[in-house]
Amino acid sequence: MSETPAAPSGQRPRGAAYDSVFLRAARNEPVPHTPVWFMRQAGRSLPEYLKVREGVPMLDACMRPDLVKEITLQPVRRHKVDAAIFFSDIVVPLKAVGIDVEIKGGVGPVIADPIRTAADLQRLRPLEPDDMPYITEAVGLLVAELGATPLIGFAGAPFTLASYLVEGGPSKSYENTKAMMYGAPEVWAELVDRLAQITSAFLKIQIEAGASAVQLFDSWAGALAPDEYRRSVMPASAKVFDAVEPYGVPRIHFGVNTGELLGLMGQAGADIVGVDWRVPLDEAANRVGPGKGLQGNLDPAVLYAPTHVVETKAREVLHAAQALGGSHHIFNLGHGVMPTMDPDALTRLVAFVHEASAR
Ligand code: CP3
To answer: For the whole prediction, is pTM greater than 0.90?
Structure first.
Protein backbone atom coordinates (compact mmCIF):
# COMPACT_ATOMS: atom_id res chain seq x y z
CA MET A 1 0.00 0.00 0.00
CA SER A 2 1.20 3.47 -0.74
CA GLU A 3 0.99 6.19 1.87
CA THR A 4 -1.71 8.81 1.68
CA PRO A 5 -0.11 11.99 0.32
CA ALA A 6 0.52 14.79 2.79
CA ALA A 7 -2.50 16.98 3.47
CA PRO A 8 -2.74 19.33 0.50
CA SER A 9 -5.10 22.34 0.21
CA GLY A 10 -4.54 25.46 2.29
CA GLN A 11 -1.30 24.26 3.84
CA ARG A 12 0.49 24.43 0.50
CA PRO A 13 2.37 27.67 -0.04
CA ARG A 14 0.96 29.84 -2.81
CA GLY A 15 3.17 29.41 -5.85
CA ALA A 16 4.81 32.24 -7.78
CA ALA A 17 2.00 31.98 -10.37
CA TYR A 18 -0.81 32.49 -7.86
CA ASP A 19 -1.57 36.04 -9.00
CA SER A 20 -1.12 35.35 -12.71
CA VAL A 21 -3.87 36.52 -15.05
CA PHE A 22 -4.74 32.90 -15.86
CA LEU A 23 -5.23 31.83 -12.24
CA ARG A 24 -7.04 35.04 -11.32
CA ALA A 25 -9.51 34.49 -14.17
CA ALA A 26 -9.88 30.84 -13.15
CA ARG A 27 -10.93 32.11 -9.70
CA ASN A 28 -13.19 34.79 -11.25
CA GLU A 29 -11.10 37.62 -9.84
CA PRO A 30 -10.63 40.89 -11.78
CA VAL A 31 -8.00 40.68 -14.54
CA PRO A 32 -6.28 43.28 -16.77
CA HIS A 33 -7.14 41.20 -19.86
CA THR A 34 -8.57 37.79 -20.79
CA PRO A 35 -5.93 35.06 -20.45
CA VAL A 36 -5.25 32.85 -23.45
CA TRP A 37 -3.53 29.52 -24.08
CA PHE A 38 -4.03 26.83 -26.72
CA MET A 39 -4.69 23.13 -26.39
CA ARG A 40 -1.81 21.37 -28.20
CA GLN A 41 0.17 24.62 -28.22
CA ALA A 42 3.33 22.50 -28.04
CA GLY A 43 3.79 20.21 -30.99
CA ARG A 44 4.13 19.85 -34.68
CA SER A 45 3.05 23.36 -35.66
CA LEU A 46 6.38 24.56 -34.23
CA PRO A 47 9.62 24.04 -36.21
CA GLU A 48 11.59 24.13 -32.95
CA TYR A 49 9.47 21.19 -31.72
CA LEU A 50 10.11 19.12 -34.85
CA LYS A 51 13.81 19.79 -34.38
CA VAL A 52 14.10 18.54 -30.79
CA ARG A 53 11.78 15.57 -31.45
CA GLU A 54 13.86 14.34 -34.39
CA GLY A 55 14.53 10.62 -33.94
CA VAL A 56 12.85 10.47 -30.51
CA PRO A 57 9.59 8.47 -30.32
CA MET A 58 6.73 10.42 -28.72
CA LEU A 59 6.46 8.37 -25.53
CA ASP A 60 10.24 8.34 -25.05
CA ALA A 61 10.18 12.14 -25.27
CA CYS A 62 7.51 12.21 -22.53
CA MET A 63 9.87 10.32 -20.21
CA ARG A 64 12.81 12.70 -20.68
CA PRO A 65 12.53 15.68 -18.31
CA ASP A 66 15.00 17.78 -20.32
CA LEU A 67 12.91 17.39 -23.48
CA VAL A 68 9.58 17.80 -21.67
CA LYS A 69 10.84 21.04 -20.17
CA GLU A 70 12.11 22.43 -23.47
CA ILE A 71 8.98 21.45 -25.44
CA THR A 72 6.61 22.82 -22.80
CA LEU A 73 8.46 26.15 -22.79
CA GLN A 74 8.61 26.56 -26.59
CA PRO A 75 5.07 27.93 -27.11
CA VAL A 76 5.34 30.12 -23.99
CA ARG A 77 8.47 31.79 -25.39
CA ARG A 78 7.11 32.11 -28.89
CA HIS A 79 3.44 33.03 -28.40
CA LYS A 80 3.50 34.73 -24.95
CA VAL A 81 0.53 32.66 -23.86
CA ASP A 82 -0.72 33.09 -20.29
CA ALA A 83 -0.16 29.46 -19.27
CA ALA A 84 2.03 26.51 -20.13
CA ILE A 85 0.50 23.07 -20.57
CA PHE A 86 2.67 20.19 -19.47
CA PHE A 87 4.05 18.28 -22.45
CA SER A 88 3.01 14.66 -22.08
CA ASP A 89 0.15 12.50 -23.33
CA ILE A 90 -3.01 11.01 -21.89
CA VAL A 91 -1.62 7.48 -22.39
CA VAL A 92 1.63 8.06 -20.45
CA PRO A 93 0.10 6.83 -17.12
CA LEU A 94 -1.22 3.73 -18.92
CA LYS A 95 2.30 2.95 -20.04
CA ALA A 96 3.50 3.58 -16.48
CA VAL A 97 1.24 0.80 -15.16
CA GLY A 98 2.52 -1.60 -17.81
CA ILE A 99 0.09 -1.31 -20.72
CA ASP A 100 1.79 -1.94 -24.06
CA VAL A 101 0.99 1.33 -25.85
CA GLU A 102 2.72 3.40 -28.46
CA ILE A 103 1.83 6.59 -30.27
CA LYS A 104 1.90 6.20 -34.02
CA GLY A 105 2.53 9.43 -35.91
CA GLY A 106 -0.54 10.74 -37.69
CA VAL A 107 -2.66 8.02 -36.03
CA GLY A 108 -2.56 8.36 -32.26
CA PRO A 109 -2.30 5.89 -29.39
CA VAL A 110 -2.27 2.20 -30.35
CA ILE A 111 -2.73 -0.53 -27.71
CA ALA A 112 -1.14 -3.93 -28.48
CA ASP A 113 -3.71 -6.03 -26.55
CA PRO A 114 -7.04 -4.27 -26.16
CA ILE A 115 -9.00 -4.68 -22.92
CA ARG A 116 -12.31 -6.40 -23.66
CA THR A 117 -13.11 -8.78 -20.77
CA ALA A 118 -13.19 -8.92 -16.98
CA ALA A 119 -9.97 -10.99 -17.06
CA ASP A 120 -8.23 -8.28 -19.13
CA LEU A 121 -8.82 -5.81 -16.30
CA GLN A 122 -6.14 -7.53 -14.22
CA ARG A 123 -3.59 -5.84 -16.52
CA LEU A 124 -4.71 -2.43 -15.28
CA ARG A 125 -3.06 -2.07 -11.88
CA PRO A 126 -3.24 1.11 -9.75
CA LEU A 127 -0.79 3.93 -10.44
CA GLU A 128 1.41 4.56 -7.39
CA PRO A 129 2.85 7.98 -6.49
CA ASP A 130 6.40 6.77 -7.23
CA ASP A 131 5.64 5.24 -10.62
CA MET A 132 6.50 8.39 -12.57
CA PRO A 133 9.69 9.99 -11.20
CA TYR A 134 10.29 11.54 -14.65
CA ILE A 135 7.00 13.45 -14.37
CA THR A 136 7.82 14.78 -10.91
CA GLU A 137 11.25 15.84 -12.14
CA ALA A 138 9.96 17.50 -15.32
CA VAL A 139 7.24 19.44 -13.49
CA GLY A 140 9.79 20.58 -10.88
CA LEU A 141 12.19 21.83 -13.56
CA LEU A 142 9.37 23.61 -15.35
CA VAL A 143 7.84 25.35 -12.37
CA ALA A 144 11.28 26.69 -11.41
CA GLU A 145 11.83 28.04 -14.93
CA LEU A 146 8.27 29.34 -15.49
CA GLY A 147 8.18 31.52 -12.39
CA ALA A 148 4.98 33.58 -12.51
CA THR A 149 3.59 31.71 -15.55
CA PRO A 150 1.28 28.91 -14.40
CA LEU A 151 1.72 25.31 -15.46
CA ILE A 152 -1.44 23.36 -16.33
CA GLY A 153 -1.27 19.66 -15.58
CA PHE A 154 -3.63 17.31 -17.39
CA ALA A 155 -4.91 13.79 -17.78
CA GLY A 156 -7.30 11.81 -19.94
CA ALA A 157 -10.73 11.18 -18.43
CA PRO A 158 -11.85 7.58 -17.81
CA PHE A 159 -14.16 7.39 -20.87
CA THR A 160 -11.60 8.72 -23.35
CA LEU A 161 -8.86 6.45 -21.96
CA ALA A 162 -11.26 3.49 -21.97
CA SER A 163 -12.07 4.16 -25.62
CA TYR A 164 -8.40 3.69 -26.57
CA LEU A 165 -7.95 0.65 -24.32
CA VAL A 166 -11.06 -1.15 -25.57
CA GLU A 167 -10.86 -0.23 -29.26
CA GLY A 168 -7.09 -0.72 -29.33
CA GLY A 169 -6.62 2.67 -31.00
CA PRO A 170 -8.49 5.71 -32.30
CA SER A 171 -12.10 5.12 -33.35
CA LYS A 172 -14.94 6.94 -35.05
CA SER A 173 -17.89 4.98 -33.68
CA TYR A 174 -16.58 3.39 -30.44
CA GLU A 175 -18.49 0.17 -31.11
CA ASN A 176 -16.40 -2.09 -28.85
CA THR A 177 -16.37 0.50 -26.08
CA LYS A 178 -20.13 0.94 -26.25
CA ALA A 179 -20.67 -2.82 -26.55
CA MET A 180 -18.94 -3.19 -23.18
CA MET A 181 -20.75 -0.20 -21.67
CA TYR A 182 -24.20 -1.47 -22.74
CA GLY A 183 -23.59 -5.21 -22.71
CA ALA A 184 -21.29 -5.79 -19.72
CA PRO A 185 -22.01 -2.89 -17.36
CA GLU A 186 -20.16 -4.48 -14.41
CA VAL A 187 -16.98 -4.91 -16.43
CA TRP A 188 -17.37 -1.37 -17.74
CA ALA A 189 -17.89 0.03 -14.23
CA GLU A 190 -14.76 -1.72 -12.99
CA LEU A 191 -12.78 -0.47 -16.01
CA VAL A 192 -13.69 3.19 -15.57
CA ASP A 193 -13.20 2.89 -11.81
CA ARG A 194 -9.65 1.62 -12.29
CA LEU A 195 -9.03 4.41 -14.81
CA ALA A 196 -10.39 6.99 -12.34
CA GLN A 197 -7.74 5.84 -9.85
CA ILE A 198 -4.95 6.02 -12.46
CA THR A 199 -6.06 9.44 -13.67
CA SER A 200 -6.41 10.82 -10.13
CA ALA A 201 -2.93 9.58 -9.24
CA PHE A 202 -1.45 11.11 -12.43
CA LEU A 203 -3.01 14.49 -11.65
CA LYS A 204 -1.90 14.35 -8.00
CA ILE A 205 1.68 13.66 -9.07
CA GLN A 206 1.61 16.79 -11.27
CA ILE A 207 -0.04 18.98 -8.61
CA GLU A 208 2.27 17.78 -5.84
CA ALA A 209 5.23 18.65 -8.07
CA GLY A 210 3.90 22.18 -8.66
CA ALA A 211 1.24 22.31 -11.40
CA SER A 212 -1.18 25.10 -10.49
CA ALA A 213 -4.27 24.03 -12.47
CA VAL A 214 -5.46 20.81 -14.09
CA GLN A 215 -7.44 19.94 -17.19
CA LEU A 216 -9.28 16.66 -17.56
CA PHE A 217 -9.59 15.79 -21.26
CA ASP A 218 -12.70 13.75 -22.04
CA SER A 219 -12.09 14.42 -25.69
CA TRP A 220 -14.43 11.76 -27.07
CA ALA A 221 -17.30 11.91 -24.52
CA GLY A 222 -19.34 13.73 -27.17
CA ALA A 223 -20.08 10.29 -28.64
CA LEU A 224 -22.50 9.68 -25.74
CA ALA A 225 -26.11 10.69 -25.14
CA PRO A 226 -26.58 12.68 -21.90
CA ASP A 227 -28.39 9.85 -20.05
CA GLU A 228 -25.65 7.39 -20.89
CA TYR A 229 -22.96 9.88 -19.93
CA ARG A 230 -24.70 10.49 -16.60
CA ARG A 231 -25.08 6.77 -15.87
CA SER A 232 -21.87 5.24 -17.21
CA VAL A 233 -19.20 7.92 -17.27
CA MET A 234 -19.94 10.85 -14.99
CA PRO A 235 -19.45 8.93 -11.69
CA ALA A 236 -15.90 7.96 -12.67
CA SER A 237 -15.01 11.49 -13.82
CA ALA A 238 -16.54 12.88 -10.61
CA LYS A 239 -14.21 10.62 -8.62
CA VAL A 240 -11.25 12.23 -10.36
CA PHE A 241 -12.45 15.77 -9.61
CA ASP A 242 -13.16 14.81 -6.00
CA ALA A 243 -9.70 13.31 -5.62
CA VAL A 244 -7.96 16.58 -6.55
CA GLU A 245 -10.48 18.91 -4.89
CA PRO A 246 -8.49 19.20 -1.61
CA TYR A 247 -5.56 20.81 -3.45
CA GLY A 248 -7.69 23.82 -4.31
CA VAL A 249 -6.29 24.19 -7.86
CA PRO A 250 -8.71 25.14 -10.67
CA ARG A 251 -10.13 22.10 -12.45
CA ILE A 252 -10.99 22.38 -16.16
CA HIS A 253 -13.08 19.77 -17.99
CA PHE A 254 -13.05 19.57 -21.78
CA GLY A 255 -14.45 17.44 -24.56
CA VAL A 256 -15.19 17.80 -28.27
CA ASN A 257 -18.77 17.85 -29.53
CA THR A 258 -20.07 17.94 -25.97
CA GLY A 259 -22.69 20.67 -26.42
CA GLU A 260 -25.40 18.42 -24.97
CA LEU A 261 -23.16 17.42 -22.05
CA LEU A 262 -21.87 20.82 -20.91
CA GLY A 263 -24.13 21.00 -17.85
CA LEU A 264 -23.22 17.47 -16.75
CA MET A 265 -19.52 18.00 -17.36
CA GLY A 266 -19.68 20.97 -15.00
CA GLN A 267 -21.64 18.97 -12.44
CA ALA A 268 -19.01 16.23 -12.54
CA GLY A 269 -16.91 18.63 -10.45
CA ALA A 270 -15.21 21.10 -12.79
CA ASP A 271 -14.63 24.73 -11.89
CA ILE A 272 -14.28 25.64 -15.57
CA VAL A 273 -15.88 23.92 -18.55
CA GLY A 274 -14.09 23.85 -21.89
CA VAL A 275 -16.35 24.44 -24.88
CA ASP A 276 -15.69 23.52 -28.50
CA TRP A 277 -16.74 25.91 -31.29
CA ARG A 278 -20.20 24.42 -31.84
CA VAL A 279 -21.90 26.22 -28.94
CA PRO A 280 -21.47 29.99 -28.48
CA LEU A 281 -20.19 30.93 -25.02
CA ASP A 282 -23.33 32.85 -24.02
CA GLU A 283 -25.38 29.72 -24.69
CA ALA A 284 -22.73 27.56 -22.99
CA ALA A 285 -23.03 29.82 -19.92
CA ASN A 286 -26.76 28.99 -19.77
CA ARG A 287 -26.08 25.29 -20.05
CA VAL A 288 -23.31 25.23 -17.45
CA GLY A 289 -25.14 27.46 -14.98
CA PRO A 290 -23.87 30.01 -12.48
CA GLY A 291 -20.63 29.74 -10.53
CA LYS A 292 -18.53 28.04 -13.18
CA GLY A 293 -16.10 29.54 -15.67
CA LEU A 294 -15.79 28.80 -19.37
CA GLN A 295 -12.80 28.12 -21.59
CA GLY A 296 -12.80 28.41 -25.36
CA ASN A 297 -13.89 28.49 -28.06
CA LEU A 298 -12.60 29.79 -31.39
CA ASP A 299 -12.95 27.27 -34.23
CA PRO A 300 -9.33 26.18 -34.84
CA ALA A 301 -9.93 26.23 -38.61
CA VAL A 302 -10.54 30.00 -38.43
CA LEU A 303 -6.75 30.33 -38.05
CA TYR A 304 -6.41 29.41 -41.73
CA ALA A 305 -8.39 32.51 -42.75
CA PRO A 306 -6.91 36.02 -43.20
CA THR A 307 -5.94 37.92 -40.03
CA HIS A 308 -8.90 40.31 -40.12
CA VAL A 309 -11.27 37.32 -40.12
CA VAL A 310 -9.43 35.68 -37.21
CA GLU A 311 -9.77 38.94 -35.29
CA THR A 312 -13.47 39.34 -36.05
CA LYS A 313 -14.15 35.78 -34.92
CA ALA A 314 -11.99 36.16 -31.80
CA ARG A 315 -13.87 39.34 -30.93
CA GLU A 316 -17.15 37.42 -31.22
CA VAL A 317 -15.83 34.88 -28.70
CA LEU A 318 -14.82 37.66 -26.29
CA HIS A 319 -18.18 39.31 -26.74
CA ALA A 320 -20.14 36.10 -26.07
CA ALA A 321 -18.04 35.55 -22.93
CA GLN A 322 -19.39 38.79 -21.50
CA ALA A 323 -22.53 36.77 -20.69
CA LEU A 324 -20.50 35.36 -17.80
CA GLY A 325 -20.69 38.80 -16.25
CA GLY A 326 -17.18 38.79 -14.80
CA SER A 327 -13.68 37.53 -15.47
CA HIS A 328 -14.54 33.86 -15.57
CA HIS A 329 -13.35 33.26 -19.13
CA ILE A 330 -10.14 31.73 -20.46
CA PHE A 331 -9.65 32.16 -24.19
CA ASN A 332 -8.69 29.02 -26.10
CA LEU A 333 -9.43 27.27 -29.35
CA GLY A 334 -12.43 24.92 -29.53
CA HIS A 335 -9.95 22.04 -29.92
CA GLY A 336 -6.22 21.64 -30.40
CA VAL A 337 -3.75 23.48 -32.59
CA MET A 338 -3.39 21.60 -35.87
CA PRO A 339 0.06 20.60 -37.16
CA THR A 340 -0.30 22.61 -40.39
CA MET A 341 -1.26 25.85 -38.65
CA ASP A 342 0.93 28.91 -39.16
CA PRO A 343 2.53 29.57 -35.75
CA ASP A 344 2.69 33.30 -36.52
CA ALA A 345 -1.11 33.37 -36.77
CA LEU A 346 -1.25 31.98 -33.22
CA THR A 347 1.24 34.54 -31.92
CA ARG A 348 -0.83 37.33 -33.49
CA LEU A 349 -4.00 35.91 -31.96
CA VAL A 350 -2.52 35.98 -28.45
CA ALA A 351 -1.58 39.64 -28.85
CA PHE A 352 -5.00 40.42 -30.27
CA VAL A 353 -6.89 38.75 -27.42
CA HIS A 354 -4.78 40.63 -24.86
CA GLU A 355 -5.38 43.93 -26.62
CA ALA A 356 -9.06 43.52 -27.46
CA SER A 357 -9.94 42.36 -23.93
CA ALA A 358 -7.85 44.97 -22.05
CA ARG A 359 -9.78 46.55 -19.18
O1 CP3 B 1 0.49 21.16 -25.98
C2 CP3 B 1 -0.27 20.41 -25.34
O3 CP3 B 1 -1.52 20.49 -25.39
C4 CP3 B 1 0.34 19.43 -24.36
C5 CP3 B 1 0.60 18.14 -24.82
C6 CP3 B 1 -0.50 17.15 -25.15
C7 CP3 B 1 -0.27 16.10 -26.08
N8 CP3 B 1 -1.33 15.25 -26.07
C9 CP3 B 1 0.96 15.93 -26.87
C10 CP3 B 1 0.88 15.16 -28.12
C11 CP3 B 1 -1.79 16.96 -24.63
C12 CP3 B 1 -2.55 17.81 -23.64
C13 CP3 B 1 -2.30 15.75 -25.20
C14 CP3 B 1 -3.60 15.18 -24.84
C15 CP3 B 1 -4.17 14.14 -25.71
N16 CP3 B 1 -3.56 13.06 -26.29
C17 CP3 B 1 -5.57 14.04 -25.98
C18 CP3 B 1 -6.60 14.99 -25.46
C19 CP3 B 1 -6.55 16.27 -26.22
C20 CP3 B 1 -7.29 16.28 -27.52
O21 CP3 B 1 -6.65 16.53 -28.54
O22 CP3 B 1 -8.50 16.04 -27.50
C23 CP3 B 1 -5.76 12.91 -26.79
C24 CP3 B 1 -7.07 12.43 -27.35
C25 CP3 B 1 -4.50 12.29 -26.98
C26 CP3 B 1 -4.19 11.07 -27.74
C27 CP3 B 1 -3.27 11.40 -28.85
N28 CP3 B 1 -1.91 11.53 -28.71
C29 CP3 B 1 -3.61 11.75 -30.20
C30 CP3 B 1 -4.99 11.74 -30.78
C31 CP3 B 1 -2.40 12.10 -30.83
C32 CP3 B 1 -2.22 12.65 -32.24
C33 CP3 B 1 -1.81 11.65 -33.24
C34 CP3 B 1 -1.24 12.37 -34.46
O35 CP3 B 1 -0.07 12.13 -34.77
O36 CP3 B 1 -1.96 13.17 -35.08
C37 CP3 B 1 -1.38 11.94 -29.90
C38 CP3 B 1 0.06 12.21 -30.12
C39 CP3 B 1 0.52 13.50 -29.57
N40 CP3 B 1 0.29 13.94 -28.30
C41 CP3 B 1 1.28 14.47 -30.25
C42 CP3 B 1 1.54 15.50 -29.34
C43 CP3 B 1 2.37 16.72 -29.57
C44 CP3 B 1 1.78 14.34 -31.67
C45 CP3 B 1 2.90 13.35 -31.70
C46 CP3 B 1 4.09 13.82 -32.46
O47 CP3 B 1 4.45 15.01 -32.42
O48 CP3 B 1 4.75 12.95 -33.05
So the answer is: yes
Q: What atom of ligand 1 comes closest to residue 164's alpha carbon?
A: 26
Closest CA to 73 of 166, 144, 2: 144
- Reading phi first (left if > 0) and then psi (alpha if -120 to 50, else beta), residue 257 is in left
> How many angstroms separate the alpha carbon of residue 128 from the centre of ligand 1?
24
- Ligand 1 center–CA 311 separation, angstroms: 26
Tell me which residue has its CA closest to atom 33 in ligand 1.
Answer: 108
Ligand 1 atom closest to Cα of residue 50: 47
**pLDDT tens digits along 175-232:** 999 999 999 999 999 999 999 999 999 999 999 999 999 999 999 999 999 999 999 9
End-to-end CA distance of the chain: 51
On the question of a cis peptide bond just before residue 297, with omega within 30 degrees of 0, the verdict is: yes
Single-letter amino acid code for the residue at 20? S
